[in-house]
Amino acid sequence: MGDRELDNFLEYLKQNRGCDLTLYKHSTLQRRLGVRMHQIGISSYGSYLDYLKHHPDELACLLDTIFINFTGFFRDFDAWEYLANEIIPKIISRKKPHEPIRIWSASCASGEEAYTLALLFVEALGIEQYLQQVQIYATDVDEAALKQARQQRYTNSEVAGVPPALLSKYFEPTPQGYVFNPTLRRRVIFARHNLLEDAPISKLDLLVCRNTLMYFKHEAQVKILIRFHFALNNLGFIFLGKAETLVSRSLLFVPASIKHRIFSKGAKLESNDVLMLSNKNSPANKSTLLDAKNIWQSAFKTSPIAQLIIEPKGRLIGANESAKTLLNLSTNDLGQSWQQLPFIAQFGDLNLPLQQTLGDRSQISIKNTQWSTAKGEYKLNVDLTPIFDFKRRFLGISVTFIDVTLLK
Ligand SMILES: C[S@@+](CC[C@H](N)C(=O)[O-])C[C@H]1O[C@@H](n2cnc3c(N)ncnc32)[C@H](O)[C@@H]1O
Fold first, then answer.
1. What domain range includes position 11?
2. By alpha-carbon position, which residue is closest to atom 9 of ligand 1?
3. Looking at the domain assignment, is residue 280 inside a domain?
4. Does the beta carbon of 404 sit less than 6 angstroms from any atom of ligand 1?
């Protein structure tokens, strides 16, 4: 099936069946559609669309094939071991015994991932504290998978990944399969949630979203990661699948273990900011700080002066709205090295000064440089200013572009 045919097919589903698959990668969709069409002996796209129109149940079968529910207890055991040994103790130690620990397994399929989380937390906390503190939200877009998850019953081969000691402690063998402990199950809530459409669960200490983002197009992954960033508490962790690479480049999160794809929201900046505002680390100061930080961020975003922020290794980590418009930047440019930014090739005057400021941290001003966009010709004053924190550590550079076209 060609790209255009696939687009038409997806458009039909979106417009007529309320099912939007346009943000999934074409390569995945083509493979999965091929599997389904082969199963029912249909070889052309046109015939499949006809078939879909005349068989009301077909959409569910198609979605079943597309939402690949492959999962397992302790899938990628090493990563779970790292989580158990290095991350969960940190999460627990930051909480007072009465404070809730909020966890989200986003795309939990048939529940094994959510129950794995329950097992690790009950082992770390003991059953009473687990029941008092832990809340696990487990969501997926696929109702059929959720139905299986809610039944909490697994076959011999499905529980093969559970360490024997945990299997005998927390599962009951029955003729119908192994049943997960109903008391622990009380702290796991299953619900339908579409990562591409629904608002995230918030105030999270740990967000687990494994082996799912990779099915989505780049722009959808970026959007979801930004939502995840908001959903996490300041010191929260995110645990992704082995094949997920985007987050390492996104600069939204700080790696805790790149190998195991575990990241933290990274509150380093904030604790420095707290020191700047006051020596007292009280909650009141923290909330004042957060307000202040939001104001700074909004001021940066909405400033009429175009501004870029480049980190010490030369990657673009911030561009306000004025800069995006003036320099024709998109969200995809965030995280790119400055040499790769499309506007740099046209902006010859900037190459050497950028190299110099990143190298020796000097302040450089370039006057009356020419810049043309679809809207017209501009004369710009460009200022490159190194940024340091209060301990004089180099944080990066700010590049501002002031429009002086109309000045004499
Ligand atoms: C390969 S499974 C991963 C299951 C589990 N996280 C793991 O790593 O073992 C992918 C899951 O993503 C779910 N999924 C696909 N699209 C989704 C969406 N838009 N929102 C939420 N879940 C989605 C599928 O239904 C499927 O259960």
1. 3-66
2. 71
3. no
4. no
